Task: inverse folding
């Protein structure tokens, strides 16, 4: 098909591969890593940075003119939102509307695309995975490569593109039909993606502290625990059956064995460099080989796309609809001009000419009526959104109240939660089981509940745990006490006596 240059656009430099892509295979010519000089950074001057980069590409013998850009997951934002189950042509407009209500940054400053997740039986809403990135960052990359005369074919997110690369591995190795977790450490960031039935469900990025291998593996295990706990609802009660750790197999093999025993699933370690070395390309050693997973996924998506992904350069769009207000104004002006011309021609034309003009006006009116009818579904969709947002969900109120009572998951996390509500939609009794780092954290939790007007019934947990990071199991049984009545105030006349 063509030769492509696929790169991961980092703030400190570029990492990527040059490859030939056909309809059945990707053949890598070379891999590379380039660091930006401080005085020629694209954030300051993309044109000058492009001129410097041209010399670097010439030194590396890179000649491809078509480029695929993968932006790091931590430089993007991914949200999971709910929208009404409306026709597909109305989804882009509703997604932008919903995203605008949740984003702290105006949509005019963002590049936006989305993935529509499959409909669930019995639900009147659809889940949508919305990805966005700063338009300024996107423009820096675009201007840099455009100054080299290169054609930017596609722009995406590294973790989503890495999932595409994994889907092209050996069929016996990568069966993404089962619940699958992809973990990729790139420098001081960890990217995690959840896939099931060849559908990306969510992707997350977090920073991890540097240190020895044991400290890094402990941090990775903690983040895996948090991610799976947060996404458990999307798995619908199913357990993870396959985990991919992207990196050096020699460094991660022991960790992979431990994770397999802890999660009771198959864990595979895959190295992009080893995949490239199977060809005849020029491969450079990299400190974080996982940085190439995103660029490789961008290449494979050009060959044969197996997962739906985002493309900021070509986002999902609805069919453009005409601006009816401008159209009506234009038709009104044209109508006035037509009336004036008709008046001038009345003395020169016969009655048959006047009948033709009347017929033409009727046709215009009929076209206007058709335009107005096409807009009716959009108005009904907006009304449906308003009704949904004002539904005053009881479950949401309960979770908001729990958020003020329970702490975060840095020191503890809950495994089970049972809430009983009173007739006034307030919590009346709270039962839960969980795990903590030490006994003092459990005492702090009970004190926090007491401070929020709960009577805590002390209970000793008989549960056991295999989680060495949270070795203390606990149980909570607390009931909400009635609000204390304030003593009546004395009348003002009594105070003056």
Result:
């Amino acid at each position: 098909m063509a030769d492509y240059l696929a790169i991961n656009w980092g703030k400190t430099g570029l990492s990527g591969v040059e490859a030939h892509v056909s309809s059945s295979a990707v053949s890598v010519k070379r891999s590379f890593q380039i660091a930006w000089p401080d005085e020629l950074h694209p954030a300051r001057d993309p044109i000058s940075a492009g001129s410097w980069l041209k010399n670097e590409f010439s030194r590396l013998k890179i000649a491809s003119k078509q480029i695929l850009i993968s932006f790091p997951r931590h430089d993007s934002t991914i949200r999971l939102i709910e929208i009404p189950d409306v026709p597909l042509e109305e989804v882009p407009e509703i997604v932008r509307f919903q995203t605008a209500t949740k984003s702290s940054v105006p949509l005019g400053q963002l590049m936006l695309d989305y993935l529509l997740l499959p409909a669930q039986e019995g639900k009147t809403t659809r889940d949508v995975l919305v990805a966005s990135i700063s338009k300024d960052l996107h423009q820096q990359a675009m201007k840099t490569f455009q100054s080299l005369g290169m054609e930017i074919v596609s722009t995406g997110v590294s973790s989503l593109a890495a999932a595409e690369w994994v889907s092209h591995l050996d069929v016996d190795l990568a069966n993404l039909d089962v619940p699958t977790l992809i973990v990729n450490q790139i420098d001081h960031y960890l990217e995690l993606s959840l896939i099931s039935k060849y559908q990306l469900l969510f992707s997350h990025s977090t920073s991890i502290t540097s240190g020895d291998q044991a400290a890094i593996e402990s941090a990775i295990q903690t983040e895996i625990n948090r991610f799976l706990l947060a996404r458990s609802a999307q798995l619908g009660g199913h357990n993870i059956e396959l985990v991919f750790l992207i990196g050096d197999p020699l460094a991660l093999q022991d960790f992979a064995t431990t994770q397999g025993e802890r999660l009771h699933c198959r864990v595979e370690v895959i190295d992009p460099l080893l995949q490239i070395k199977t060809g005849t390309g020029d491969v450079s050693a990299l400190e974080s080989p996982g940085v190439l997973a995103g660029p490789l996924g961008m290449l494979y998506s050009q060959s044969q796309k197996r997962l739906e992904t985002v493309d900021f350069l070509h986002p999902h769009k609805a069919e453009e609809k005409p601006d009816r207000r401008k159209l009506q104004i234009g038709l009104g002006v044209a109508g006035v001009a037509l009336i004036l011309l008709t008046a001038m021609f009345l003395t020169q034309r016969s009655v048959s000419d006047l009948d033709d003009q009347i017929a033409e006006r009727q046709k215009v009116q009929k076209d206007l009526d058709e335009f107005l009818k096409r807009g009716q579904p959009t108005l009904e969709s907006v009304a449906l959104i308003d009704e949904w947002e004002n539904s005053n969900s009881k479950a949401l109120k309960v979770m908001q109240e729990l958020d003020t009572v329970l702490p975060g998951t840095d020191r503890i996390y809950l495994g089970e939660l049972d809430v009983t509500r009173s007739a006034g939609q307030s919590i009346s009794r709270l039962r839960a089981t969980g795990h903590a780092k030490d006994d003092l954290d459990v005492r702090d939790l009970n004190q926090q509940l007491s401070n929020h007007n709960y009577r805590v019934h002390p209970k000793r947990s008989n549960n056991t745990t295999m989680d060495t990071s949270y070795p203390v199991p606990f149980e909570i049984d607390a009931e909400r006490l009635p609000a204390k009545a304030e003593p009546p105030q004395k009348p003002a006349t009594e105070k003056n006596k």
